[in-house]
Design brief:
The complex is a heterodimer of chains A (194) and B (592).
Chain A (H helix, E strand, L loop, with lengths): L1 H57 L2 H12 L26 H10 L12 H16 L10 H7 L10 H11 L8 H11 L1
Helix pairs in contact in A: 3-6, 4-5, 4-6
Chain B lengths: L1 H8 L20 H36 L6 H7 L12 E2 L5 E13 L7 H11 L5 H9 L5 E4 L4 H10 L4 E10 L7 H4 L11 H5 L1 H4 L6 E2 L4 H17 L4 E8 L5 E7 L19 H5 L15 H11 L7 E3 L4 E3 L2 E3 L8 E3 H6 L3 H11 L1 H10 L26 H8 L8 H12 L3 E2 L16 E2 L3 H17 L13 E11 L2 E15 L6 E8 L17 H16 L9 H7 L13
Parallel strand pairs in B: 1-5
Antiparallel strand pairs in B: 1-2, 2-3, 2-4, 6-7, 6-16, 8-11, 9-10, 12-13, 14-15, 15-16
Classes of the chains: A mainly alpha (194), B alpha+beta (592).
C-alpha cells in the first residue's frame, strides 16, 4: 500500500514537474516569438515611415511636372475649356416608339437569309451602317450615329440588305453607338464627328 | 495513550507482536513544560505555513482562473503598448500630403580606446563616408576619450557600408532626423528643426510644443498644389525682373486660412545652412527672412483701398464724391503728385482706378486723422498680427501724438506706414468678404466652421469695395491681370523704396492684391515684388501693373480650377450689372 501510494505521488510529482517545465518553455518560446513579432512590427512601421517620406519625395510637384513634360505633355486646363460645365450638355432625347421598327421587322423577317450576311470587316461595320442608312431614307430612328461611318460603308451595305430589319430592331432597342475595334479608330471617329 | 491501551486490551494480539514504541511518559516538571512549549511553537509555525500556502493557492487560483489585470504586465514586457513614438509629430497639408516627418537615422560614433590602428580605420572610413576630414578623424580616433562622434545622420546605405567594414570600436547610435520631402517649396511656412529636434523656424518653431512627442500629425491650411503654383509664378517674377525679394500669399477670404505662402529667396529646410545653388550670392540670413510675415514694407497705393473703404464707411464721401486732382499738393517740404495724372476732377471710383495720390490724400483729409487711426486699428493694421509663426513683424507708423496732417495724407496713399504682407492680406480680405476681419491662420479649420471674426466695415461698404476692386482690374492700373472668366478684382501698389533715408526715384516695391470671383469673393492672392527691374518685355516698367499684377493673373488662372471656381462670361449683363457702380452704369469709362 505504502509503496503504491508513494509510486503514485512520485509519478504525479514528476508528471507535474515535467508539465510545468514544458509549459514554461512553451511560454518562453511564445514570449520570444512575441518579442520578435513586435520588433518586426516596429521595423515595418519604421519602414512605412521611410516609404511615406520617399513617396512624398517622388511626388514632388516639380518632379511630376518634369515627368509630365517628358512622357505626357499635358497642359494646364485653359479657361475656355471650363466655360461649359457638365450641366450644359443636353440630356439625350427620349428614344422614339419602337412600333415603326417592329412593323418593318414584321414585313421583312421571312426574307432573312443567313447565307447572304457578309462576313469579316463588313459584318463588323454593318451595325453602324444599317441604321444610319435607314435613318437617311424614310424617317429618323433615334439619333443617327456617325453619318461619316455610314457613308464609308454605303457601297457595301446592299449586300447585307436582307439582314437589315433585324439590325434596325436592335438599333431601336439599344440605341447603340457605332462599335469600333480599336481605340485609334474610336478617336478618329470622334474627331470626324466634330 | 489510547493506542497503547488498544494493544494491551486486544486479546487477539499475537505474541510476537510488539506494540510500537510510544512517547515516553514525561512526568511533570521542567522537561514537561519545555515539551509543552515546543508543541505550542510547532502549532504557531504550522499555522503560519498553512496560511502562507493558502495565500499561494489563492493567488494561483486568481492568476489562472481569473484573467485580469494580473496578466498584462507580463505581456507588456514583450510588447510596449504604443510603438516607439516618433520624437516629433508629422506635418501634413490640408489634403494629407506629408510635409515633414521624422525618420530614424543612425549616427556613427567610436570608442577610441577600443581602436587599435587609428590611421587604418581613418583611411577606411574616409573611403566609405565621403565628406569626412581624414586628419581630423585621426586626431579624434587617437584621443583618450571613450566617445567621439564620427558622423551624424547616415543614410541606410552608408550604415550598411560601415557595418561591412567590420571595425571593432565603431558603434551606431539611433537618432531621429527631420525630413522635408518638398525641400525649399515650403521653407518659410514649415521652417525647420535643428539636429536635436528643436524647432528653429516656421511652424516647427511656432508650434514646437505641440509637435514634440505627439502622435497624430499637425494639419496645416497649406494646399501643396497651390503652394507649388504660387512658388513657380513668384520665382518667375523674381527671376524675370531680377528682384531682390518677393512675397506671395493665397488666402481664403471667408475663413482666414492661408493656402499658400511663398517668400523668395528661400532655403532648403533639409540643409538650411548650405549655400543654395539658385541664389549663390544671397546670404543665409536673407534667405531665411520671411518676407510674408516678418518683413514690414511701405506698400504704397495698395493702401488706398483702406482709405477709400474708411471714407465710404464713415460717410466722409460717397461713391459719387469728387475730388480735385488737377494740381499737385504742396505741404511743408513735401509735394504729392500723381504718377500718371489725369489732371482733372476725379470721382471716388476714378481715384482708385487711376491710383491718384492727390485724390486719395484729399479723401484721407476728409476722413481726418483721428478716424483714420481708429479705422486702421480696427483693420488690424496698427498691431502685430496673431499667427502661428513666431516670425511676426510689427507695423511701423507715426506716433499717434505726432500724427499730423501730412501723415494723414501720405498714409492715405500708403507712404509713411509699413505693414507686413500678412496683415495687409487679412485686412484686404475683410474689405471684400462683407466687412468681416478674421485672423489669418496656418492651421486647417474644420469645414463650414469659419471663425466668428469682427465686423470692421459695413456689408454695404464692402459691396462698394468689391465694385471698386473690379473697376481697377477692368479699366484701371490692374488691367494686366488678364485672368478672363474669373472676375478678378484687385489693387496695385507701387511704392518708392527708401534708400539711404530718402525715397529713391527709380527703385520701387511693386505689389498687387487680387480677389476672385468678385461676385462673391472666395480667395485672395497677394504678390509683392521687392526692387524689380524693368525688362524689355515690360517696356522697362517695374511698376505693379507690369510685375505683380500679371503674376497674380497667371496664378489665378492656374489655381482657380483646383479650387473649383467656375469661370463665367465676364461680359454677360448679369456680371457687369452686379459689379458696376450705379453712378457709372451706361457711361463710357476712360481706361488708365
Amino acid at each position: 500500500m505504502i509503496r503504491l501510494s508513494t509510486l503514485f505521488w512520485l509519478i504525479l510529482v514528476s508528471a507535474t514537474g515535467f508539465a510545468m517545465f514544458a509549459v514554461k518553455y512553451e511560454v518562453q518560446a511564445l514570449a520570444d516569438q512575441l518579442a520578435h513579432t513586435s520588433r518586426q512590427a516596429d521595423d515595418a512601421e519604421r519602414d512605412v515611415r521611410v516609404l511615406d517620406a520617399d513617396w512624398a519625395y517622388l511626388n514632388r510637384p516639380d518632379a511630376l511636372a518634369a515627368m509630365n513634360q517628358r512622357y505626357l505633355s499635358l497642359l494646364p486646363i485653359a479657361t475656355k475649356q471650363l466655360i461649359a460645365s457638365v450641366a450644359d450638355i443636353p440630356m439625350r432625347p427620349p428614344p422614339p416608339p419602337p412600333v415603326e421598327a417592329a412593323a418593318v421587322v414584321a414585313e421583312t423577317t421571312p426574307q432573312r437569309g443567313g447565307s447572304l450576311v457578309p462576313s469579316g470587316p463588313v459584318a463588323a461595320q454593318s451595325p453602324a451602317s444599317a441604321p444610319a442608312q435607314q435613318s437617311a431614307t424614310p424617317k429618323p430612328i433615334a439619333q443617327s450615329p456617325a453619318p461619316v461611318a455610314a457613308a464609308a460603308v454605303q457601297a457595301r451595305a446592299p449586300a447585307s440588305e436582307p439582314a437589315r430589319p433585324i439590325l434596325i430592331k436592335a438599333a431601336a432597342r439599344h440605341n447603340p453607338a457605332p462599335r469600333v475595334r480599336s481605340l485609334d479608330a474610336l478617336i478618329a471617329q470622334i474627331a470626324e464627328s466634330r | 495513550m489510547s493506542a497503547v491501551h488498544q494493544f494491551k486490551d486486544n486479546p487477539c494480539r499475537p505474541r510476537h507482536f510488539k506494540p510500537p514504541p510510544c512517547a515516553p511518559v514525561v512526568p511533570d516538571g521542567p522537561a514537561r513544560r519545555a515539551l509543552d512549549g515546543g508543541r505550542g511553537r510547532l502549532l504557531v509555525a504550522s499555522t503560519a505555513f498553512v496560511l502562507l500556502f493558502a495565500i499561494i493557492a489563492g493567488r494561483l487560483v486568481q492568476v489562472t482562473l481569473f484573467p485580469g489585470a494580473v496578466t498584462v504586465p507580463y505581456i507588456a514586457r514583450f510588447h510596449p503598448a504604443p510603438p516607439p513614438p516618433p520624437g516629433r509629430a508629422d506635418i501634413i497639408d490640408r489634403h494629407g500630403k506629408l510635409l515633414a516627418t521624422t525618420l530614424d537615422s543612425p549616427s556613427l560614433y567610436a570608442d577610441p580606446r577600443q581602436i587599435t590602428d587609428a590611421d587604418e580605420v581613418a583611411r577606411k572610413l574616409v573611403a566609405t563616408l565621403p565628406g569626412l576630414d581624414r586628419a581630423q578623424l585621426q586626431v579624434k580616433l587617437k584621443s583618450r576619450k571613450g566617445f567621439v562622434w564620427i558622423k551624424r545622420h547616415l543614410t541606410p546605405d552608408q550604415e550598411y557600408a560601415v557595418n561591412q567594414l567590420g571595425i571593432p570600436g565603431l558603434q551606431f547610435a539611433h537618432e531621429e532626423r527631420r525630413v522635408y520631402p518638398y525641400g525649399s517649396l515650403l521653407s518659410h511656412a514649415i521652417g525647420y528643426a535643428g539636429i536635436d529636434d528643436n524647432g528653429l523656424a516656421g511652424i516647427e518653431r511656432g508650434l514646437d510644443n505641440q509637435l514634440r512627442g505627439r502622435q497624430e500629425p499637425v494639419q496645416l491650411s497649406i494646399d501643396l498644389r497651390l503652394q507649388y503654383i504660387l512658388h513657380e509664378e513668384m520665382q518667375r517674377v523674381f527671376d524675370d525682373f531680377t528682384a531682390k525679394g518677393a512675397a506671395g500669399l493665397i488666402m481664403n477670404v471667408n475663413t482666414g486660412e492661408v493656402l499658400a505662402m511663398v517668400s523668395l529667396p528661400d532655403f532648403d529646410p533639409n540643409h538650411p545652412d548650405m549655400p543654395d545653388p539658385n541664389h549663390p550670392n544671397v546670404p543665409i540670413a536673407q534667405r531665411m527672412f520671411n518676407r510674408v510675415t516678418l518683413g514690414d514694407y511701405e506698400i504704397g497705393s495698395m493702401f488706398k483701398i483702406f482709405t477709400t473703404a474708411m471714407a465710404l464707411d464713415c460717410g466722409a464721401t460717397t461713391m459719387t464724391g469728387r475730388f480735385d486732382a488737377t494740381n499737385p499738393i504742396h505741404i511743408g517740404r513735401f509735394t504729392i503728385s500723381d504718377y500718371h495724372g489725369k489732371r482733372r476732377w476725379l470721382s471716388v471710383p476714378e481715384i482708385l482706378m487711376y491710383s491718384s495720390n492727390i485724390g486719395e490724400a484729399k479723401i484721407a483729409l476728409a476722413v481726418g486723422g483721428v478716424r483714420q487711426q481708429e479705422y486702421l486699428r480696427r483693420f488690424g493694421l496698427l498691431t502685430s498680427p496673431t499667427f502661428e509663426l513666431k516670425e511676426i513683424g510689427r507695423p511701423h507708423f507715426p506716433d499717434p501724438v505726432h500724427w499730423r496732417e501730412v501723415n494723414v495724407m501720405t498714409i492715405g496713399f500708403g507712404h509713411g506706414i509699413s505693414e507686413t504682407p500678412l496683415q495687409l492680406a487679412s485686412a484686404a480680405a475683410a474689405m471684400v468678404n462683407g466687412g468681416v476681419l478674421r485672423q489669418a491662420t496656418l492651421l486647417k479649420l474644420p469645414p463650414d466652421d469659419a471663425p466668428q471674426g469682427r465686423q470692421v466695415i459695413s456689408p454695404e461698404t464692402s459691396a462698394h469695395m468689391r465694385k471698386l476692386f473690379r473697376l481697377v482690374v477692368q479699366y484701371g492700373t490692374g488691367m494686366m491681370v488678364d485672368a478672363p472668366g474669373y472676375v478678378v478684382g484687385g489693387k496695385t501698389g507701387t511704392a518708392n523704396r527708401v534708400i539711404g533715408g530718402r525715397y529713391s526715384a527709380d527703385r520701387v516695391r511693386s505689389s498687387f492684391v487680387g480677389a476672385f470671383p468678385m461676385t462673391a469673393p472666395k480667395y485672395l492672392v497677394l504678390v509683392m515684388v521687392d526692387d524689380p527691374h524693368g525688362t524689355k518685355a515690360s517696356h522697362g516698367f517695374a511698376t505693379a501693373g507690369w510685375t505683380a499684377a500679371p503674376a497674380v493673373g497667371r496664378t489665378i488662372v492656374r489655381i482657380a480650377p483646383l479650387l473649383g471656381v467656375q469661370p463665367v462670361d465676364e461680359s454677360s449683363p448679369a456680371v457687369v450689372q452686379a459689379l458696376m457702380p450705379v453712378s457709372l452704369q451706361g457711361k463710357r469709362i476712360e481706361a488708365y
